[in-house]
Structure formats: structure tokens, C-alpha cells
Amino acid sequence: MLATVVYPVTIEVDATESDARHGHGRSPNSKNRSPLIAALVAVFIVSGAAGLIYESIWSRYLGLFVGHSAYAQIIVLVIFLGGMSLGAHLASRWSSRWRSPLLWYGGIEFVVGLMAAGFHETFLATTAWAYDSVFPSVGGVPLLVIKWTIAGVLILPQSILLGATFPLMSAGVIRMGRAGASPGRLLALLYFANSLGAAAGVLLAGLVLIELVGLPGSLLFAGCLNMLAGVAVALIARVHERNVAVGSRLSALGFGSVIQAESQVPFMRAREERYDDAREHVEAAGEQQRSGKPDQLDQHEPGE
């Protein structure tokens, strides 16, 4: 699964390295990128918490349906991880074609939140139909297969969408930070943030939410987190697009060249200092020759 997560951002990494090789200077809006990236990392912590709240709550819902908590844990792990892998794979195939992966990310987060808000009613309606219309006419192994299939279908769409979030966020952040940040460090930071949020989500669901608001309330809480994350990322993406547009207009007016030249000033100063040192050395050697004093580098014993 890690390979499918990393694949969609390789194009962005290549673009970043290409910019560095060609000596592209700092863009006019580069100073605005760090706060936006920090905000995206914070949002990704919230998204990770919501994802593991779902996993914890789904296990309890499906335990009520299949009749055994151990079976429910197996179903949730298989469908959750398998669905996330599929979502990451699909995102890796399509994200390079999308102009703004962050807007797609925001939309997916919002849809996941809406699905979470309606999960309880969907679960009740589906299980009631299964017990009334399907289970009485089958038995044995077919009954078990049907029961597991229905349980998997209940959480598969959300799992696929959740799997698409990491590639989309990675692609969006790397595009946003291509001026100076290391892509590898950005990926590690995103993975850390999402994992940290996931750990917090498990603790929050198991120790606080279920006792306070029950299973439906816990899902609604996680859904609100997803919808807030989606709206926040969409706003951040719009702000970044506006900054890029402003930077393009400044470059068209000639300010971009000035800013790029300013970014090269430290390197020019260092080169001038090395040139001055070399010139002083040459002048000192010339003075020694004119005064009849041999250079220290040329002093040696006769016959050596």
C-alpha cells in the first residue's frame, strides 16, 4: 500500500528537482506557503483521527450484525485496509491529471462526512432488510458469505474514499511547497501527522465518545471532523491559487525577476568574497617578488 501512496507524488518530486536544477529562484508568493502547509498538516491530523474513529465504531456496529466481535474485527480490518489500498491506487492513477488535488481532497473529505452522518440509518435499514428478507431463505455457508458481504459493502465506499486522501494531500502539499521544501520531508511529516491523529482518534473513540454520545453520536462527531477538514482544505487551496495568480501578475510586471535576483544575492556575495581573497593573494605574491623575497611556497633547500 505504501507504494501506491508514494506513486502519485513522484511527478511532483520530479518537477521540484527540475526547478532546482534549472536554478529557478524564489517566487513572489513563496513566503506565503509555509503557513498554508502548516495548516494542511494540522488538518491532516484531524482527518487521521476521524478515520480511526470510524474503524473503532464500525467494528462495534458490525459485531451487532454478524453476531461476533472477532468476526467484526476481521471484516473491518480487511475492508478498511483493502478499501484504502484501492482508493490510494485509483488516486495515484488520476491525481496527476487534476489541476488541484487539494480541492478534490476537500470534496472527498466532505462526502465522507456526509456518509458518516447517514451511516446509522443506512445500517438499520440494511440489517432489517437482511434479517426479514434474505436470511430466512438461506443457511449454512451461503448465509455466512451473504452476511459478511453485506457487512463489507456497508463500509467499503467510505474506506475507498479515505484511502484516496493521503495521495491527494501529498500531491497538493508537494506542489504547494516546491519552491524550497524537501518532498521527502513533507511526505514524512504528512505520514507522521496522519498517524498521530489516528492514535488520538482510537483513544478518543474508545475512552470518551462511546460513553458520552454512543455509536451514532461518535460517527456524527467524526463526520463533522471530516466536513470541517474538507471545507478548510478547500479554502486553503483557494488562498494558494490566489497567491499564485498574484505572483504570476507580479512576474509579468517584472517584479518576479527582481525577487529572483534578490534570492541570488547571498551566492553572489560569497563568490565576490572568494574573488577578493584570490586577488589579495596574487597581489601579496607580486609584492614579495618585487621586494626580492621568495614566496614561502617556493622556499626549499638546495638539492631537494
Structure description:
The chain is mainly α and 304 residues long. The chain folds into two domains: 251 residues, Growth Hormone, Chain: A, CATH 1.20.1250; 35 residues. Helix content is 83%, strand content 0%. It contains ten helices and no strands. Helix 3 packs across helix 8, helix 5 runs antiparallel to helix 7 and helix 7 packs across helix 8.
Please mark out the parts with pLDDT under 50 across 5 or more consecutive residues, or reply none: 1-30, 261-265, 295-304
The run of helices and strands is HHHHHHHHHH
Major sheet characteristics:
none
Named CATH architecture of the largest domain: Up-down Bundle
What is the fourth-level CATH superfamily of the largest domain? MFS general substrate transporter like domains
Q: What is the name of the CATH class of the largest domain?
A: Mainly Alpha
Note the total helix count: 10
Here the CATH topology of the largest domain equals Growth Hormone, Chain: A
Strand share of the residues? Answer: under 5%
Residue share in helix: over 70%
Query: Quick check: average pLDDT?
Result: 79
Total beta-strand segments: 0
Global geometry: elongated
Structural class: mainly alpha
Number of domains: 2
Query: What is the rounded Rg?
Result: 30 Å
Q: Kindly, what is the distance between the CA atoms of the first and last residues, rounded to a whole number of angstroms?
A: 69 Å
